[in-house]
From TrEMBL:
Residues 1-27 are annotated as: Disordered. Transmembrane segments: none annotated. Its EC number is 1.6.5.11. Keywords: Iron, Iron-sulfur, Metal-binding, Oxidoreductase. This is NADH-quinone oxidoreductase subunit NuoE. Residues 15-25 have a biased composition (Polar residues). PANTHER family: NADH DEHYDROGENASE [UBIQUINONE] FLAVOPROTEIN 2, MITOCHONDRIAL, NADH DEHYDROGENASE UBIQUINONE FLAVOPROTEIN 2, MITOCHONDRIAL. One of its GO terms (molecular function) is oxidoreductase activity. It comes from Kibdelosporangium philippinense. CDD domains: TRX_Fd_NuoE. Pfam families: 2Fe-2S_thioredx.
Length: 287
């Protein structure tokens, strides 16, 4: 497989030369698409097919390594999307085309997945992604106030920063994208904030403002738990399964609060009943 710049082929699709529907990935599928699109829509799709993928030249080997992990190449789509995100800081149309070509999928199939999961960003992200949990428990404990304070602090007078908006130039040092997030699975440590998916527990509006100010200055304050802080592109690479340094996986993975129940049971000698090895499923009522 040739996997390089414009005019060359990616998994069978011609890229950057004369626009064509001869993707060879699945002619019948693309013929069906062409038959239901208007001329303008077809032109747009052809333009999309002609995206320059040379920005991904450096990750082709890694893409192939991801694909080799799975019996069927399409199963590699989620880490592949993290991989393209590690290059541009978001999943661009070219990133979608790259994944489609590598995995022999239609661009629409890749696009459907990339737009479903919130971890795939469709706009260029800041050097850091700050996620504030505003789900029920964190919200009640102060998550809503943290998010409101952050929007105001990072926005302009009278124009608070919005969900998935960035202060600074995306990708440049000190730039920050904020988002409100659903439950981050750390309710016992709420309200919680994540930076590039690393946890900062038991936050207050003041603590979070200090945190983002440090990020704006180029500092990387240590997370409460987990690996040291990196940046959004680097963590996307880790999510694709590539760890460049041993320290990428270093750090405490548990908190005292999380273990409180287990500790209490141990102190009091409580144990759960042993599960029998074979338990028959109850009969299901016939419908
Ligand atoms: S509600 Fe915030 S971590 Fe669960």
């Amino acid at each position: 497989m040739t996997t390089s710049g414009p005019g060359q082929t990616y998994g069978g699709s011609t890229v950057g030369s004369e626009p064509t529907f001869q993707s060879t990935v699945d002619d019948s599928r693309e013929a069906t698409v062409a038959s239901v699109l208007s001329e303008d829509q077809t032109k747009k799709l052809v333009t999309d097919i002609a995206e320059d993928l040379s920005v991904f030249d450096g990750i082709v080997e890694r893409a192939q390594a991801i694909i080799a992990r799975y019996p069927q190449s399409r199963s590699a789509l989620l880490p592949m999307l993290h991989l393209v995100q590690s290059v541009q800081g978001y999943v661009s149309q070219a990133g979608i085309q790259f994944c489609a070509a590598q995995l022999e999928l239609a661009a629409a199939e890749v696009s459907a997945v990339a737009t479903f999961y919130t971890m795939y960003k469709r706009k260029p992200c800041g050097e850091h992604l700050v996620s504030v949990c505003t789900n029920t428990l964190c919200a009640a404990l102060g998550g809503d106030s943290i998010y409101a304070k952050l929007r105001e602090h990072l926005g302009e007078p009278g124009k608070p920063l919005g969900h998935e908006e960035t202060v600074g130039t995306p990708g440049e040092p000190g730039s920050i994208t904020i988002e409100h997030a659903e439950c981050l699975a750390a309710c016992d440590l709420g309200p919680v904030v994540q930076v590039n998916y690393e946890f900062y527990d038991n936050q207050t509006p003041e603590k979070t403002v200090e945190l983002v100010d440090a990020l704006r200055r180029g500092e990387k304050p240590a997370p409460t738990r987990g690996a040291p802080l990196t940046d959004f592109k680097d963590v996307s690479l880790q999510l694709a399964g590539f760890f460049e340094r041993e320290s990428d996986v270093d750090g405490p993975s548990q908190a005292t609060e999380t273990l409180a129940g287990a500790q209490l049971a141990q102190d009091r000698g409580w144990t759960a009943p042993v599960m029998p090895a074979n338990v028959a499923f109850p009969d299901l009522e016939k419908k």
